[in-house]
Design a protein that fits this description.
heterodimer, A: alpha/beta, 2 domains, 18 helices, globular, B: alpha/beta, YefM-like fold, 3 domains, six-stranded mixed sheet, 9 strands, 14% strand, binds iron/sulfur cluster
């Protein structure tokens, strides 16, 4: 088979994995080799779906002995199959990298013959890259569930990041849809990797030149919308993964129907992109804004609002917290104000040292006044001429997607979220109580 | 004697030259109405004064930035000078002026108009530099990697470290069409050359093959059900795409992005050295 056809098949089979970043490690280049890594990550292109392309994301093979129902590569699916030869894939990676197409390699795989066999082929690919080409660019590798932990250990010594995908957020869903996998088969390797990373940190303290194990940390992915699991379950699980397994990132992937299985959404169902977006927003709040899952959702409200983003939702439900005085509030309080992000909160702290801030000044610091105005005072004063009517509040507080949905009257999307009523009334009520 | 303010300075367009304008202003006790480079068109009612670039004067001013304003001030203003901000010269002048008066505090003064505009421009410069660390596309021409970019800001001085570090064993060239500047690297040294044009050679079969593989990858990785060209455009503005392999037609486009007829190979025209 020609390389281009292989590449097509093995890219097509890999594209549903949402992880795309090349972040988490700084590494300078070395004479005699090729490549470096930048901690913030670098996007090299964007595909027609608007997602960042950073790594050459392919499978080693799309042959698989397992039959996970939600997966295109499942044994029972009738699709063309292909496998890369380790040397062929290593060369392709280097040639792409030289031309600055990519930041590195994201290697995953179906299970060919046996998890150990598959894992060995992946190790060989990475070994060629690291030892023969002296490649210092980014490598993200998927741990193959069921592979021997010694093999996973070797894989991790060549990789910057490793991931084991949770995929389905509950044991129940897993049983129904991934009969060959169990909670155990996912969380054991995940725990093993976390353990090795911790040990490695200790080794590095003792011996500065100890080989580094997965220096950019571990990540995982969950599929959203394939099963009835709700946002609250997903977010709680996400939070516990950050705490228990010290994961660097949890990715969410809106389920694209690829199967006619009776328990899955039928083909042609639209992927729940808005829901995926809300989960990413909430994930951001957990990681950088000091929020906890239980503040954002609870047993009664177990799904995010389609029209209002999670932070705004929280603010509207906690009007007693506001208004916040911009010239006095600490960093964490500032971060809770809708319209103020990490950058603008930092800028406020810095600019406050020079002069006390007014609303005009806040604009210059990147604060989105349109949103923030309802929640802040500058030197004790509310913004001048603040009008609280149904329409102005809706226009300012609805998320961008929310506005699109609301104003274009695409109510069919709303019907998914019947349990939460339109925010117009509640928004104005909340705000009204304060005025 | 009060400072006078009815003169326009003209300088040679270099950072050193601009610092000499500052020098002149303080020695003659005059505040220039504007500072314009050699190339910008004439046509103002105000008298103009040509400011000579004299290295030692520039150095004196440069040292004073660190001593009287902030250790980072010199580097910050050098970066300001790389931005595409219109009338950056007079803004840099005003920044220095204010900085001399209030010292390092100027960097906290984010809402002050001059500081705000310069900060914004520098952020734009850093952002464009960051985008190009990803969007630069090389072609392998007989073992040398070549690339053309057309940035708004003069990003090449900031980009060079990244690529030299990343490809220590390669020979490569990045040509900035906007600023007519080329970065040329071979192990282990880099240099900047001024060049009026650069025509990348036609790809050979091997190069064509990798381009096609990359295009195939780029096309395949997108999920049809999530098609979202608007989002793609936000992250990857159209203006960068002229020079990106994955957005080019297989057949050579009718109007080649860089039109300089008749040059062969990766020839640089007018390769005068330019210290930076
Ligand atoms: S083991 Fe992985 S590749 Fe194989 S069917 Fe399951 S999810 Fe798909």
């Amino acid at each position: 088979m020609e390389t281009i056809e292989k590449l097509r098949i093995l890219t097509d089979a890999a594209k549903y994995d949402a992880a795309c970043t090349s972040s988490g490690i700084n590494r300078t280049g070395k004479k005699g080799g090729i490549g470096s890594a930048v901690s913030a990550g670098i996007c090299h292109s964007f595909s027609a779906d608007g997602r960042c392309i950073s790594l050459l994301k392919v499978l080693m093979t799309n042959c698989c002995i397992y039959d996970c129902k939600y997966c295109v590569n499942r044994l029972s699916n009738d699709v063309p199959r292909a496998s890369f030869d380790p040397r062929e894939l290593a060369e392709l990676t280097i040639e792409f990298y030289r031309r600055n197409y990519i930041e590195g390699l994201f290697l995953s795989s179906g299970v060919l013959k046996h998890p150990d066999y598959t894992c060995e082929r992946m190790i060989e690919t990475l070994r060629i890259l690291r030892e023969e080409y002296h490649f210092h660019g980014y490598i993200h590798v998927k741990a193959i569930p069921g592979a021997d932990s010694a093999l996973l250990g070797r894989l991790g010594l060549f990789a910057d990041r490793m991931s084991v995908n949770v995929e389905l957020p509950s044991e129940q869903s897993l049983k129904l849809l991934a009969p060959d996998k169990s909670r155990e088969s996912i969380f054991r390797p995940m725990g093993m990797i976390t353990g090795r990373i911790r040990e490695n940190h200790c080794e590095l303290v003792k011996y500065r030149h100890a080989p580094r194990f997965v220096p950019a940390g571990q990540s995982t992915q969950m599929i959203v919308g394939a099963t009835p699991d709700n946002d609250y379950q997903i977010l709680k699980l996400t939070e516990s993964l950050y705490r228990k397994y010290a994961l660097k990132r949890v990715f969410f992937s809106a389920y694209m129907p690829v199967s006619d299985h009776a328990l899955l959404p039928p083909r042609g169902t639209k992927p729940p992109l808005l829901r995926e977006h809300r989960l990413y927003q909430a994930d951001w709040l957990l990681r950088y804004y000091g929020f906890q899952a239980d503040e954002l959702l609870d047993e009664k409200h177990h799904d995010f609002h389609p029209l209002v983003d999670p932070k705004c939702s929280w603010a509207l439900a906690h009007m007693e917290f506001f208004p916040v005085e911009i010239n006095r509030a600490d960093y964490h309080t500032l971060l809770r104000i809708p319209g103020i992000g990490v950058k603008s909160a930092r800028a406020i702290l810095q600019a406050r040292k020079a002069a006390s801030l007014d609303f005009q000044g806040l604009k210059k610091l990147g604060v989105v006044l349109k949103r923030a105005q309802y929640f802040i005072t500058c030197s004790g004063k509310l913004i001048e001429g603040l009008r609280v009517t149904n329409d102005t509040v809706l226009r300012s507080l609805l998320s961008e997607q929310g506005q699109a949905v609301f104003y274009q009257e695409r109510y069919e999307q709303l019907s998914f979220y019947q349990q939460s009523e339109l925010p117009g009334k509640e928004v104005v009520q909340c705000l009204g109580r304060r005025m | 004697m009060p400072w006078t303010t009815d003169v326009i300075y003209r300088y040679d367009g270099s950072f050193c030259g601009l610092l000499c304008c500052v020098f002149e202003s303080y020695v003659k006790k005059e505040i220039p109405l504007d500072i314009v480079s050699e190339e910008s068109p004439q046509g103002s009612l105000y008298p103009e004064k040509w400011i000579e670039t004299i290295e030692v004067r520039a150095q004196r001013v440069y040292r004073s930035l660190g001593q009287r304003i902030h250790p980072e001030a010199g580097r910050f203003l050098k970066d300001c000078f790389l931005t595409c901000l219109v009338s950056k010269e007079i803004l840099i002048y005003r920044f220095i002026n204010l900085g001399y008066r209030i010292g390092g505090r100027i960097f906290n003064n984010l809402t002050e108009e001059t500081v705000h505009i310069l900060n914004k421009a520098v952020k734009h410069l850093y952002h464009e530099t960051h985008l190009l660390t990803g969007f630069v596309r090389f072609s392998d021409c007989a073992g040398t990697l070549v690339s053309v970019i057309e940035p708004k800001n003069n990003v090449l001085p900031l980009l060079s470290g990244h690529f030299c570090d990343r490809y220590p064993e390669e020979r490569f060239l990045i040509y900035d069409k906007t600023h007519r500047l080329a970065l040329v690297y071979q192990p282990y040294q880099a240099e900047f050359l001024e060049a009026d044009g650069f025509l990348p050679p036609e790809p050979d079969a091997r190069e064509e093959n990798f381009r096609n593989l990359w295009k195939k990858f780029h096309e395949t990785i997108a999920i049809e059900g999530r098609y979202n060209p608007k989002c793609q455009r936000t992250h990857l503005p159209i203006r960068y795409r002229d020079y990106m392999t994955e957005f080019q037609q297989s057949a050579p486009p009718l109007s080649h992005p860089v039109e300089f007829p008749g040059t062969q190979g990766n020839a640089l025209e007018d390769g005068s050295n330019r210290p930076l």
